[in-house]
Design brief:
Largest sheet: 5 strands, antiparallel
CATH topology: OB fold (Dihydrolipoamide Acetyltransferase, E2P)
Distance between the termini: 25 Å
Order of helices and strands: HEEEEEHEEEEEH
CATH superfamily: LytTr DNA-binding domain
Structural class: alpha+beta
Number of domains: 1
Helix content: 10-25%
Strand order of the largest sheet: 5-4-3-7-6
Length: 149
């Protein structure tokens, strides 16, 4: 990693430019750290429901799945559907507790109870409240790193 500071007398605000070949986990974690530093990290997710807006505490969130173009938020208080994209969710709410385990699923490792070997090198993650999902080989190393394994 390289960094460079450029003094700009005309700029009243701190501007940060990140450049990399692709927006990977390292970039997303850095964005998350910058947001935490700036105090703008959100702790609630607002989800439009039939008769209003439901607020879901980020700490209560067990998993996030993509299904038919929607995000399914599974929390301790129920399941909610939003039209947000998975990459947008990762940008807004990324923290050390959330890890992507497949192309369509992010889990909160705080609620991870156990993992079992599955087919062709994949694992099955079992979380609180009976939630289970497949952990693909592509994302297994990241999960293991997050868990300190």
């Amino acid at each position: 990693m390289k960094w460079q500071f450029i003094e700009d007398q005309s700029s009243l605000e701190l501007d940060i430019l990140l450049k990399k070949q692709s927006q990977d986990e390292e970039v997303l974690k850095l964005i998350g750290l910058l947001e935490q530093f700036n105090g703008q990290k959100q702790h609630l997710i607002a989800v439009k429901v039939e008769d209003g807006i439901q607020f879901v505490a980020l700490d209560d969130l067990i998993a996030v799945d993509v299904e038919a173009g929607h995000l399914i938020l599974t929390s301790r208080k129920g399941t909610f559907v939003t039209r947000e994209r998975l990459y947008q969710f990762k940008e807004k709410y990324l923290s050390d507790h959330f890890v992507q385990v497949s192309k369509q699923t992010i889990i909160n490792v705080t609620y991870l109870e156990r993992m079992e070997a599955s087919f062709s090198g994949n694992m099955t993650a079992f979380l609180t409240d009976g939630y289970q999902t497949s952990v693909s080989r592509r994302y297994l190393k990241l999960l293991e790193k997050t868990l300190g394994i």
